Amino acid sequence: MAGRPEGGATDALPTAHKSAAGGMNRALRLIARRALASIPVLLIVVVLTFLLLETAAGDAVDAYLLSIGGGDASVAQSLRAAYGLDQSMPARLWLYLSSLARLDLGWSVAFDRPVRDLIVERLPNTLLLMGSATALSFGLGSALGILAGARPGSFRDRALSTVSLVLYAIPSFWLGLVLSIVFAVQLRWLPTSGIETIASGRTGLARAVDIAVHLALPVGTLALIYMALFLRVMRAGMAEVWGMDFVLFARSKGLSRMRIVLRHVARNALLPLVTMLGLQAAAMLGGSVVIESIFAIPGFGRLAQEAVSGRDTALLTGIIVTSAVLVIAVNLLVDIVYALLDPRVGATERGA
Amino acid sequence: MLTAIPTRRTFLQAGAALLASTALPTLARAQAASAGGRLIVAADSEPKNLNPAIVASNGVFFVASKVIEPLAEASFEGKDGLSPRLATAWEGSEDGLSVTFKLRAGVTWHDGKPFTSADVAFSALSVWKPLQNLGRIVFANLETVETPDAATAVFRFSKPTPLQLIRNALPVVSSVIPKHLYEGTDIAANPANVQLVGTGPFRFAEYKPGEYYRLTRNDAYWGKPQPNLDEIVFRVLPDRAGAGAALEAEEIQLAAFSAVPLTDLDRISRVPGIKVITKGYEALTYQLVVEINHRRKELADLKVRQAIAHAIDRKFVVDTIFLGYAAASTGPVPKNAPEFYDADVPTYDFDVAKANALLDEAGYAKDADGKRFSLKLRPAPYFNETRQFGDYLRQALAAVGIDAEIVNADSAAHQKAVYTDHDFDLAVAPPVFRGDPAISTTILVQSGIPAGVGFSNQGGYANAELDAVIAKAAETIDTARRTELYRQFQKLVAADLPLINVAEWGFITVARDSVLNVASNPRWAVSNWADTALQG
Predict the structure, then answer these.
(1) Which positions fall inside the Solute-binding protein family domain (chain B) (predicted)?
(2) Which residues of A touch B236 (CB under 8 A)?
(3) CATH code for the structural domain at B72-182
C-alpha cells in the first residue's frame, strides 16, 4: 500500500538518489567555484564599507571625545596619531586590506580591543537568536502555510493569510515592546531583557534553560514577523500544485485528502521554501539592531550600530566581512541542498 | 553565595514581622536596611576606558566612582560644599602657589597595599595633569607635588592658582589611582583601566561586555561599617523603554541619568513601589544653550541676537519640552551654583513684537513672504530634549521672520560640523556646569580656542573685555574677588549674548521604594554609594 503513492510523489519531485555520486561531484564543483567567486565579492564589500564610513562626517576621535565630554586640541591630535587617523585615506585602506589578507581583522578603537575578540564574543548570541527565530518562523510558517494551502480560498486560508500579513506589517520595535509589556511586565512570565540571568553562576542544563527563557520574547517577536514570508510562499506553492495532473490522479485513486495534502501537494511546494529559507537566513545573519537593543542582547546588530556611531571602521568592516562570509556559506549550503534534490541545478555548473 | 545569606535573613524577618503583626513597621525597616543585598542598576553605556583619573566624565564616574575615590566629594551640608574622602583637610597658601592636603590614615587599596601621599603625587603629576580631560585645565600650572610624609601632599603651582577653583574641581578631577600598579607602564593602556583597583567601598568584580558590570563589597573599607550593600550590578540596557519595563518588572531597582524618558515619568510614578527622584544632580547641571556662529553677518549684530533671545519662550521650553523638570536660565551660570549665580543680569522676556522691532531696526526687513533671512540650525542629537528644542526654535524663529533650516546628524557628525568645520549658523548644545565657571563654562565664550575643541567657543566670537575678565578671574586668589569677577562675567555674557542660555536641568532617578538613601549628595549618581541600602 505504502509503495504506490510514494512512487507518484517521487515522479513529481525529481530527487536524485539514483545518482547520489553525481550530486556530490556537482556539490564539490560548486564549492570550488563559489570559493573563488567570493573573493572579489568580499573585496568589493570591504572597500565599499570603508569608503562609506569615510564619507560620513566625523571620525573615531570626534565620537570618543564627545563620549567623554570634550577635550582640548592636543588630545584630539595625539589620539588621531595613536589611531593612525592622521594618515591619508588610501594609506589606511591599504593598511587595512593588507592586514585582512593576513586574516587579521584589526583593532577596534571604539572598544580598545581586537575586532576578532569582539566578533567571537557576539556572534554566538546572534546565531542563537537568529537561528532560533529562523527555525521557528520556518516551522510555524510552513505548518500554517500547509493549513492555509490545504483549501486555497477557504475562510481558514483567508484568515491565516490576513493575520500573518498584519503581523508582517507591524514594526518589530513595537511588537517587541508590546510583547515585553504583556509577558514580562504585566504577567511576569518571562524576563524583560538580557541573554541570561546576571551573574547567576548557572551551568549546564540550568543555564541552557535560563538562556531559552530569556530568548523566548525576542525569538517570538522575530518569528511572528517573519512567519508571514514562509506562510505565503508555502501557501502560494501549494495553490499552484493543486491544479497539476498528478494531484488529480491521486484524487481519482481515492486517496484521503490528508494524504494528498501532506504527501503530494505540500511536499512539492517545499522547493521554493528552501530558497526562501536560504535568503532569509542570510538576511538574518546581520543581526537585528532593533530587537537586540530592546531586549538588551549583546549581538551583532548592536555591535554594528555601536561601530557606526563610534566611527569604528575596522570593527564595522570586520562585522560586515564576517556576515558576508556567513551569507556566502549559507547560500552555498542551499545550493548544495538543491543540487542534491534537483539534478537540473548542478547541470548548468558543468558547462560554466 | 553572599546573596543567599541576606535572602534567608530577609525571609526570616518577613516571617517574624508577620507574627509580630504589622505594628512595628519602622523597626523592621531599620533592621532590613542593613541587610546588604544586591542592587541592580540600569546602565546605558559601556565606556572603553573606565579609569576616572584619565576620563573625568559622568558615564565613567557612574560605575567607577564606587571603586576609585576622589580627595573630596560634593556635599549638601559640608563646608565649601565638600565632604572629605581620601583627603581630610586642605589649605591654600597666601600667594596661591601651593595647596596642602592632609590625607586619610589607615586606607588600603583593594589589593591590600597601603594608600599614601605617593599615590596622590603620582596621580596628580602623571595622570590628572597630562592625561585627564578636565585635569589638564585645572592643574595646568601644577609643577610638583611634595610628600613630606605619607599623610601629606603639597601641590606646588608655577602661577597663582585659586583655591576656590581647586576646591570646586576636587570631586571631578581628583580620583586617586594606585601608583604601584601604574608606575612605569603605559598608563593609557594599563589593564587596571578596565579591571579597576581603588580604595572605594566596592571592589570591581566582573565585566561582561554588553551585559553587566558587577561590583562587590569592600570589607576593608575605611568608612566601616559602610558600605551597606553587598553588591552593585550595572546592567547594560541600551533601550530606554527597556529600563522602564525592567524597573516595573522588578528586574532592576534603579535607573539614574533619566534612563526612563521624561514622557514616561508621569505614568511610572503612579506604579506602586516606584519613586521618581529629582534630587541628587545639583552639581551636574546641564544647560540648554543656543550656540551662535558670529561669522554670519546677521548674527554678528547684537540686535539680531537680542531678537532671537526675545523670540524664545523659556516657559514653554521648560513646561512642554522638559515637562517641568528644568528651570529657565538667565545666564551662563546656573541657579544651582549659588556661590557664583547672579540674578541681576540683563534678561530677555518672551516678546515677539519686540523681537520683530529689533530685527527691523537692525535693517533686516521682511520680504514679500514674511521672511527676513535664512539660517542653518543644527540641534545636538545627544538628548531628546536638544532635538525637540531644535524643532521648537525653528518655529519660534519663523514667528519673527527668520527661516531656520534644521540639519540633523548623528553625534560624531554633529561634533565635527559644529566644533571643527564651523558649518552652522545656530546650534543647540547641552554644555555642563561643573561646579566652577573656570572648568567648562568660560571656554564657551572665550576667544582664541583652536578649531576641533568640543563644547567650546567655535562661533568666532571675540570680546576683549570678556576675555580680560576671564583671564583675571583665572589668577585671582581671593575668593570674594574671584566670585565678583564671575558675577561680572555673567553680566557681560547676558548683555552681549555670545550664546543664548535657555534652560538648565538635572537628571531624574527612578527607583524602587526599597532603595534607601538615594540622592544623599549633589553628585549622587556619580558618588560612591557607600550609604545606599536596600530595604527588606
Answers:
(1) 82-429
(2) 296, 298
(3) 3.90.76.10
